[in-house]
Every structure is written in structure tokens, then in C-alpha cells.
Amino acid sequence: MAIRWFYAWGLCAVLAGVVRGQESAHPGKAIYSKHCASCHGKEGEGVKDKCDDPLQGERSLSSLTRYIDRNMPEGEEHLVVGEDARNVAEYIMGAFYSAEARANKPSPKMAFARLTNRQFRESVADLLGSFTPWIPPGEGTGLQAEYFQSDGMNKKARKVLSRVDAQLSFDFAAAAPVEGIHPEQFSIAWDGSLLAPVTGWYEFRISTPNGARLYLNGIPQDGDGNHRDDSGGKRQPAFIDSWVSSGDEVRQVGARIFLLGGRAYPLRMDYFKYKEKRGMVRVDWKWPQGEWQVLAAPYLSPARAAHVAVISTAFPADDASEGYERGTGVSKEWHEATTAAAIEAANQVVAKMHLLSGIKNDDPERVNKFREFLQCFAERAFRHPLDQEMRRIYIDSAFAEGAPLEQSVKRAVILILKSPRFLYPQIRAEKDDHTIATRLALGLWDSLPDAALLAAAKEGQLRRPDVLRSHAQRMLQDPRARQKLLVFFRHWLKLDAEADMRKNGQLFPGFDAVMVADLQRSLELFVEQVVWSETSDYRQLMLADTLWLNQRLATYYRIPDVVGDAFKAVPAGQNQRSGIITHPYLLARLAHPDTTSPIHRGVFLTRNVLGGILKPPPEAIAFENHKFDPKMTMREKISEMTRSSNCMTCHETINPLGFTLENFDATGRYRDNENNRPILTESDFNTLEGELLRLKGPQDVAQLAVRSASARRGFIRQLLQSAIKQNPAVYGSDFLHKLDEHFVAQQYHIRNLFLEINLRTALHSINLTPP
Amino acid sequence: MNASSRRQFLRQLGLSAAAMPFLPALPSWAAQKRNAAPVQRLIILFTPNGTVPPDFWPDQVGADFQLKRILTPLAEFKNRMITMKGICNKVRGDGDSHMRGMSCLLTADELLPGNIQGGSDKPAGWARSISIDQEIAHFLQAREETATRFGSLELGVGVPNRADPWTRVNYAGSNQPVAPNNDPYALFEKLYGQVKDRENLGSVLDEVRGDLRTIAKHVDPAERALLDQHASFVRDMEKDLQSAGTQNLLFPPPSLEQGVALDNDGIPKISRMQADLLVSAFANGMARVATLQYTNSVGQARMRWLDIHDDHHHLSHEPDNNRDAQEKLVKINVWLAEQVAYLARKLQSTPEPGGQGTMLDHTTIVWTNELGKGNSHTLDDIPFVFLGGGLGFRTGQSLQFNKVAHNRLWLSVAHAFGHHIPTFGKRDFCQEGALSLG
Questions:
Q1: Which residues of A touch B178 (CB under 8 A)?
Q2: Between B410 and A98, whose confidence is greater?
Q3: Do the Cβ atoms of B230 and A153 come within 8 Å?
Q4: Residue A717: its pLDDT value, please?
Q5: Confidence band of B15 (pLDDT split at 50, 70, 90)
């Protein structure tokens, strides 16, 4: 029995139409004043506690007329029908509803925002990281491994082999790991880096009956890699220490760590066997909200990585009420969290202040040099040079009379990171090239400008469109831009959803947590492969008929010829699938444990794919499967449940879209019947442009997503909001239209779109318009 | 604590009253409970690689004895101490002498089989049972009148950053080594919270508020509203920092020298910082049992501050007829005795909180070692010095036992705390019961 909440949706607004603004007193105005203004306001601005949101949207005139005719005013729908409805639609269309009408009014103001939590962590990591050489993340092929014959306390008596190992799971039993080593005693050293895919708390666990130490995101010490058991050489602290065995049993020792996604972390493991019967070692890890799995490629690289300054202080969640995280409010909890985080960062700076500054401990000029270091630190944090007064506040004041140097450094760092100049990136009243640099780095990376960008800003170069573009292109190649785009796609495709995806084990045997992790990976691979291919084609995202599968997934989804754990792209067969729309991860995510959920799927397609805006529901109604005749199909149940005109306001849009996916069960597996009854996917569908379509299946929805300008603008809007964290109207009522024209002209190139969004908003930040 | 000592305390701390609310409120920081039994405390102080017996053991037995060179730094405490010759670590089984000397020192039982190969014997793993300090701490923690915030503290001075039977002396139970805290700054954090950070914060917030005012002048009203809100949080936190609430702390935390490198050459400074932190934690009732571990078994400190450039373990292997090496070893052990003396003096100069006499009257330091002598690796005649009045043993004497198992010594210590366990560690070694030390 599945009980899940579903919602009676209030449909707000959708597609664009082009209607000329009406002069003087339109006949619809009087009707509007009489029947509509009490809830929507005189100018459609909204009325608190009645209809809060302004009356504006993208519906065409015919769509809007139809909507008013059927649904308005709520509860007295008979009052405005027929000709009256058309008149009201025409009037509001010209007066304030459409983008064109709003173009004559001033754009809304840019939201003044603090750093989001992600921006705070990324900025601090890059701020500290900017003082040590940058090392690009390596290929995710595995770890560099060196195999040794050991001799008692000397764990590296003779090197026998170097190679790259793709995963950290070995069972040597009683044998030697490789030829040329005596099985009684040997050691292995793995070295390289960990590529963390997402941000959050990770868990790690070593299982071995032998000895192993794992080092992760440490700061290198002279004694690292020391091969003698009795050495007193200074080593970095082990992240997990399971060096000493006790008897023959396999011991499990674990630890947790907070990591930022999209970055590489230094990782080393030392392992040895000494006279035990069995040689075996395995490292498992668990992502935030993930499942335990063996630590393996593609998350391991033989390349070196530098320590990352990670802030693990917990922050109160950012406001995501508009569907994207933004820093538009402050709270006591946020203030306390940023304080704790500033202290955490300051402790990290002090712990490696000589490494970061390059200043020697015995340098007679060290105090003055540290002032210079901190001034540079502040400039990077504030994204702007310091003037005399700022230097007094942020540097000089920290160097109190007689205070130890460490104390002063710490005080200055806390001061800088608690400063509104760091926390509110757009705080400066004067707009200049640094404003552009700030906007660009936030948009592309959620972080600070790097040295090159800051230098260009200092030289006043960024107003030159060609210079700006070349910087943006350079920055787009950086892993941080890739990560930022990935964060958007994960959110857009609900890969970051926290609720579990458990299914009824009797109905769907084999669909377990490992399968869910594989599905996530499969969808991510598809997105990455499309977005970072040369064409980066949005149409591929919607229309491609391939799936990335490994053997486990292919077996479950009944697709032949996939062998092994590695993923490969394969045709999904018989024109069944169409890009993200039919990806089994989403289909399973948007379903109940026992049954499909056309409502969840329909809402997703409306909002995320076709650019519609659904208001939160006025009331919540539980879908109770057991209350329906079990012989009914899901389509029949949903149609029955939502048939009232009140429901149909929204469900006339939601249901037909959801029904197109009924050929896919609650795990996204293809089916051609439901309880031995044929599946009907076809329905009539009124597009927001006012067009009546016959939707036959997911391919039709995908075609619409590509063909419909309002659907594309929906995608552009979501990408822009995620990247820039502003309402697109801030940049002009036709901003999305212009971006869409560019998008289409550029062959739907997603990365170019992302670049263009960033370029145009960066220029806009100092009131320049792009050429 | 009266007002003037509070001011003194704050001065030493380098703190304004503002930072104080962030000191955690601790029940046992309050004055001693009335009618409670006198406080008893124990500090195990470990130094490695055996001693130089002819320069350590008094020639006489009984109350009339002369201190040899190594113990001369403790001369002022001669009447407060006991030297105990003839105590032997009789534990055999897996592991070399250094491993058993270390990991069986406080556990008095065999090591578990394992994978760590020493210089001789069979490989071994961790200790198989609880160490005496942890045993006593558990006993004290189980009673409301003796329970403290931490129960026990484990401090290190120059202990290498690796965990194995040579580096761990404390065990919470079988297979459960306890790592010593090697970093005085981290220990300060653990004991006294973020006092210093909060102090920094007080002055920081003032500056931040000033700059906020400057910025707010140039922004429009909507932005100013958010900044005003921000400023009000800053103000609230400043107020929190200034509110009273300092009544819980009996004794000031030590003001640590900043920037001491945590490496070999930092050992002399780290040693004092750890001793200061230990005494202040005891004075504030945070624990009654502690271990202060200097390096490790096979410790390789290079005491360059004594103009000795060889490592300690290496020197300890030199034969008796290497006069130069023996002389250096004496110097090393004299220096170690000075560290014991520093700790004792610190306790002696601190009045017992809420009680009679000084803290040394209520604390016993047990100075010990994993070996009797370095070049023979013997586990016989382990250098044991008891110093202070915590256990109520009769001090001011040089004792000579006839090769008794150290299990019996730990029984005496447990019994002195009122913890009347019949055996400790390996049973076979406990047959004759606790040593009579009253």
C-alpha cells in the first residue's frame, strides 16, 4: 500500500504570447477592477494574504483567456466568461501581465545578497589555496602503487613493482601480492589523490587483518612515507590508523571528513602484512547520503594534489524557496556560523602560516612581511585593493602592541572573514572593473576572482569585451566551473534529493541501494558526456536514445551486451527512451515505492522541462492506492482523483505529461501492460502558447521542450538563477528572450549559454550592455 | 576566589572579562563539596629507554639515604618521595622488551598477538587489558563525589605521530590504546574552549561594526536594512561576550607562549606547557588522574638543548664502558628529573582548592620507565619514584624489594584510592597481594 502526498496545484502562469499594449480605457479594465483587483491588486501587483504574487507570466492570449474563462474568479467562475474573459485577458496582457508590458516599467532591483553557504566555503578554500601552487586534478585512473618486500621493522626493504591500482580492495589470501615478493612479509604504498564528487560529510572505513594507515587531505611533513616502524620522523597525523593487528580477525576502523565537491585531495595509504595467515585490505567509503562502496577509480588519481582548506562548520540552510539557493537573508544562526567558520579558517591559516606566506620563522622582517601577506589576503578576500582606512581597520588594528605574531595573524583573518566586505560581495557602492571580476567569479565558480582576473581588473581591462570574454573562457575550463554546472544539473535533475528511493522489494526484486547509486552515476555520466562534448547540445539532453549502463543496470533494465562494472553508452532500444525525460533514475525518483506517480512526473515535466510555473498547492491530498479498485490502471486512478474542475486547473497540464511516461514502472523499467491491461499514454495537451497537441509519448514531450521557446526560456531561467542567484527580470524584461535567441543561434550550446549568462550579467553589474 | 585573585587571574590569562562566558561551565569547578573525603590525585610520568642505575639508585635503604646525581634535581622533595628498587615487569609472551616494557607497564598483562615486529622476540599487538590509570579513573568516575569532567587526561611531550605498542602506554581496555595529546594548544582548546578565539572576536566585532557603519552610509535603504540587521547580530554577540558569568573558574588557565614549534627542539618548552596545563586542569577539578608521557619507548629525542646530538635510544644501547655515552645518558636523565621537579614545584606552589595544604599534598607523581636499563633491555629494577602525598604512602624513604611483580605495586596504588581490587593485570603475579607502602 502506498500512501504519498500529492498536491492540488494552483497553476499560475506560463507561456509567452505577443499582444500589443492597449491604449486608454480597455473594456477589460472595468471588469478587472470589479472582479479581479480585490485579490490581484489594481496593477496586478498582488494583495497580501489573497494572491501575494504579481500577476505576470508567459501564457499566450488564448491560453490566458481560456484560463480566466474556466477558473476565475475562484469560487465564482461564472462571473467572468466568454467575451468578458477575453477582454480581461487582453487588458491585463497589455497592462502588466506580459514581458512586453513590463518592459515599459523599471526593472526590479537586483537582490542584495550575502555569500551563500557554498560560496562561503568555496571562497575560503580558494582564498587559502591562492597562496600555494595550484595543481590541476588528475585523471581518475586509480592510485600509484609501490610494492615492497619488507624486512621486520623496515617496511620498504626492496621495491619490487610500481603500477597504478584502480581500486583499494585486495585479498591476497596466503599468497604474495605480486611475483617476486615473499608472501610472509610485504608492504604496499598507495599514493595520489581523491576526487570528491560532491560537498558534504564522507565516511571512510579500512578493513584488514593486517596493518594500514590512511592519510587524507593532510599537510605534508618531512617524515611522511618513512618506512621504518621505529622512526621518530615527523609525519602528518593519519586520518585512519589501523596499523597494529591483534590476532587474525579482520578489523574495521573508520573516520569521517567534510570535503568540497569537485576538488582533489591528497590521499596516501601505507599497508603491510607480517606473518599473518591472510593478507587482505579494503577501503570503503560512503558519500553524503550515499551507500558504502569500495574506494576506486574514477574517484582516485595517481596525480598529486595540494591540501584544501575545508571549512566544516555547519551553516543554517540557505533560502531555497525560489528553487535555487540564495543569500538574501541573515539570521543570528548564520552570524554565529560565519563566526565559527572564520575562527576555523583563522586556525588553519595560523597552522600553516609559514607555508602560505613563504616567510621564514627567523626572518628579522617577519612582522612587516606578515602585514604585507595579510594585506594581500584581505585584497583577495574583498576582491578589491585596500585603501588607507581599510588597511588601518583590517591589518593595523590586528597588530596590537606586544601581541604574539600568531595572535595578530589570527585576529586579522577573523576580522577579514567577518567583514561585510567579504560576506557581501556586491557591497561596494562604486562600480568598477572589480565589480565585473566579482560577478564573473561568483557566476562561474561561486568563488573569488583568481590572480589573473584580479590583475586584469586592477589594470582596468575587463570593460573590454574581448578581454572579458577570454577570461570567462579561461575560467570555464577550470574544474570549478565544471563543478558549478554540475551542481545545477544535479539540482535540476533531482540528483541532490535527500529522500531515499526504496522500492517494494517484492514487486521490484534487485532494485536496491547499490542500484540507486548506479542510476545516479548513469544519469551524471549522461549529463557530463553531453554537456562537456564539443557540441554541448541541449537537444541531445532531451532527445538522445542512449543510456549509460553497467552490467548490473543493464541486466535489470533488460538491455543486452553490457559486461562488467564499467559504464558504457548503449542504445536503449525500440525508440523507447528520450534523454533525461526517460532516464530511469528520474522515473524511479518520481514514483511511489509500489507504483508510478504520473503526478510527480507531470509536475517535474511542467516545471523543470517545459518552463511552466506551478504555485505551491493550496491543499494537500493523500494518494491512497488501496482506496481504488485494484483493477484500475494508474491513469484511471489519477484521472478519477483529479477530475473536479478545481483540480483540473493544474492537472489538465500535469496529467497528460505524466501519462506519457506510463510505459515505465516505478523503477523506470519499460513495461507494455499494467496488471495485464494495456497502457495508454496518449492525451490532448494545451501548450502554454495556446496550441493543442496530441502527446503520444515521451518523444513528443522532448520535441516540445526543444521546439518551444518558452520551454527553452524555462531552462535558461533555471540555469541563470542557479548561476547568478538573481531574478532574470533584473536584467531587463526581455533578457531571457535575448539569451534564447543567442542559445538557438549557437546550436543550443549549453556551455556557451552558461558563458553568455555570465558575460552579460557581469557587464550589467556596471551598467554596460553587451555588444 | 576573591576579587583581587580574579583580577590577577584575568591578567595572567591576558583576557578581559568579556571572554569568560565561553569557558564551559563545569560542575566540578565549583568549590569542593563539604564533608567530602580529601582529594587524591595520581600522575603517571613516563620517560623512556631505562636509567643509568649507578647514578640513579640510592646506596642506602630506609629513611637515611643519599640522592645520586640523576635524582639531585628532586633534592628539595627528598622527604616527599620514595625510591623503589626491585620492582619488575614480569610479563613475558609476544613482543620485544621495549614493547612489553611500554604497553605492559600500566596494564601488567601480556600483549595480544599481532603484526608489530620488534628488535627481538615474536611480533605482538596491543595490550590485552586496561591500564591502571584508566582503571582508577573509572572507579573515581563511577562515584558522584569523585567524578570529574574528564576523569583522566593523557598528555604527551614529543610523542611521535604513530600509534603502535611503543608509543602507547594507556589503554581503555583490551585492544583500545589511548592516544596522548601531544599539542599544548589543542589541549588548551580542549580544557578551556575557545577562550582566545573569543577574545580575538571581541575586538574584531568592534571593528566590523565600525566598518559596517561606513559602508551603510553609501548604500541604498533596502541594502542598509540588511546591513543594520547584520550589525544588530554583531552587537548582540558583543553583549554576550561582555555579560558576566565568570564564577565557575577556580584557577586561571596558563597563558601559553605562542608559536612554539611542536618538534624535537620544542620539547623543553612543550614540557613546561604541558605541566602547566596539567596542574591547572587538576586545580580546576577537571580530572584526578593523568599520564604525562615523554616521547615513547625507544624514544629518539635529540636533546640538543643539552648539547647532546645523538638520539636518546641510540645512546641507551651503548655499553657501560662507553663513558662518554653513559655521561650523556646521565645528563639526559638529570634533565628528565628536572621536568619531574618542575611539575612537583608547580603542585607544591598551588594551594589545594577548597582543602588543606598544597596540591602536592593531594597528588602523587609516579615517575617510571619501560626498562630498568637501556643496554640490557632488562625489565627488572624499573626506576620507580613516587613523589607527593596523594596516596598517603610513607615518603622520605628508599625502598628495596626482592624482585616483586609490578602488578603488586599497581594493586597498592588502587587500594590507596579505596579501590580494593584483589588482582590487577595477570593474576599469577598478584598472589602475594598489594605491596605494603603505608
A1: none
A2: B410
A3: no
A4: 95
A5: very low
Q: Give CA angle at A729 (A726, A730), nearest 5°.
A: 60
User: Best of A230, A326, A405 to disrupt the B interface by mutation (most B CBs within 10 Å)?
Assistant: A230
What are the pLDDT digits (tens) for B193-224? Answer: 655 666 667 778 888 888 888 888 888 877 88
Q: A351 contacts in B (CB within 8 Å)? A: none
A471: left (phi over 0), alpha (psi -120 to 50) or beta: alpha
Q: What is the ipTM of this complex?
A: 0.75
- Work out how many CB contacts closer than 8 A connect A with B: 157
Residue linked to cell 559486461: A563
Could you please state the CATH topology (level 3) that the domain comprising A143-301 is classified under. Jelly Rolls (2.60.120)
Taking an 8 Å cut-off on Cβ atoms, the answer to whether B201 and A339 are in contact is yes
Q: Are B330 and B83 in contact (CB under 8 A)?
A: no
Quick check: A29 and A91 in contact, CB under 8 A?
yes
Total count of residues recorded for chain A:
771
d(CA A277, CA A434): 64
- Given an 8 Å threshold on Cβ–Cβ distance, is B126 in contact with A244? yes
d(CA B101, CA B159): 16
Which chain B residues are within 8 Å of A390, Cβ to Cβ? Answer: 211
Q: Is B221 at the interface with chain A, CB within 8 A? A: no
Q: Do B222 and A109 touch (CB under 8 A)?
A: yes
**B105 Cβ partners below 8 Å, 6+ apart?**
B46, B89, B169, B368, B370, B382, B406
> Which structural domain range is residue B199 located in?
1-30+193-252
Question: Using one digit for the tens of pLDDT, what is the confidence trace for A592-601?
Answer: 999 999 999 9
Looking at residue B4, its pLDDT comes to 39
Name the residue among B126, B208, B226 with its Cβ closest to that of A330: B226
- Chain B closest-CA separation from residue A461 CA (Å): 26
- What pTM was estimated for this model as a whole? 0.84
- Name the residue with cell 536503449: A572
In a mutational test of the A interface, the residue from B161, B199, B220, B238 whose CB has the highest number of chain A CBs within 10 Å is B161
Q: Give the residue among A492, A525, A526, A486 at the shortest CA–CA distance from A751.
A: A486
How much is the pLDDT for A650? 84
Q: Where are the domains of chain A?
A: 17-97, 114-132+338-425, 143-301
Q: Which CATH code, of 3.60.140.10, 3.20.20.70, 1.10.760.10, 3.20.20.80, is assigned to A17-97? A: 1.10.760.10
Chain B: closest CA distance from residue A195 (Å): 26
